[in-house]
Amino acid sequence: RLDPQSPERWENFYRNIKKIKKKVEEKNFLVSANVIGGYMYLRNLFGPEKVLYIFYDDPDLVHECMKVWRNLILSCLKKVQEYIPIFRFYIAEDICFKTGPLISPEHMKEFLIPYYREIFEELKSGQTQPIYFEVDTDGNPEIIIPVYMEAGMNALSPFEVAAGCDVVKIGKKYPNLIIRGGIDKRILAKGPEAILKELNRIMPEMVKRGGFIPSCDHGVPPDVSLSNYQYYRNRVIEMDH
């Protein structure tokens, strides 16, 4: 499954890429290259506990795994670039929990960042249009934002408020970072008064700053009513103009 040259992988590619290319040329479509990040890939291979031991017990194996991952991602995305430009390189990482990262910044720099940087540089060299590099992680990622920036990351999501994330504060600290998320899902369940109070705190500052895509700070939970969600979206649209 990790062999990019497997014929089965490309059975539908050539038919689908023509349809997508037409949409891109008509300016009706932007291509997002969504991939499972290196940490999530390693965690899925070894398990969430065992992977932590593997970093210490067999670092060469980790690097071998990451080389296979890099080869798969690059081979597939470079093929896409032969037909259409990539708008966003999106890594689903989930490398953080409530209080911070699940592995250290030092481990990230050793086992993840060099491969991310290599992929991103290769993709940038394959087209003239800019590419946005977005990392998605649960929890609180504040101390690893500069680590990801070393690989070229310029966008991050979803900034879970329950984990201590404050997009206004983070936006001031990293003025060039594109921020997506940051709207507390718990407040969306409380009703219009609480929603408006939170949006009045966030939106004026972030609209003035720019580079902010307001959205729920994770999946919208079932205790958020349709009317509350519609109220929130309507207010966001009003405030963004």
Describe the structure.
The structure is a single chain. Helix 4 packs parallel to helix 6 (113-125). The strands form two sheets. A six-stranded parallel sheet has the order 1-2-5-6-7-8. It has a two-stranded antiparallel ribbon with strand order 3-4. The protein is of the alpha/beta class. It has helices spanning 13-25, 38-46, 50-57, 59-81, 105-111, 113-125, 145-149, 167-173, 185-188, 192-209, 226-239; strands spanning 32-36, 88-92, 96-97, 100-101, 132-136, 155-157, 178-183, 212-216. Helices cover 50% and strands 14% of the residues. The N and C termini lie far apart (47 Å).
Q: What spatial form do the alpha-carbon principal axes imply?
A: globular
Number of strands: 8
Strand content: 5-15%
**How would you classify the helix and strand content by structural class?**
alpha/beta
Uncertain segments are none
- Within the largest sheet, what's the order of strands? 1-2-5-6-7-8
Output mean pLDDT.
95
Helix percentage range: 40-55%
How far the N terminus sits from the C terminus, by CA atoms, comes to 47 Å
Q: Could you state the order of secondary-structure elements as H and E? A: HEHHHEEEHHEHEHEHHEH
Describe the biggest sheet?
Answer: 6 strands, parallel
* Continuous helix count: 11
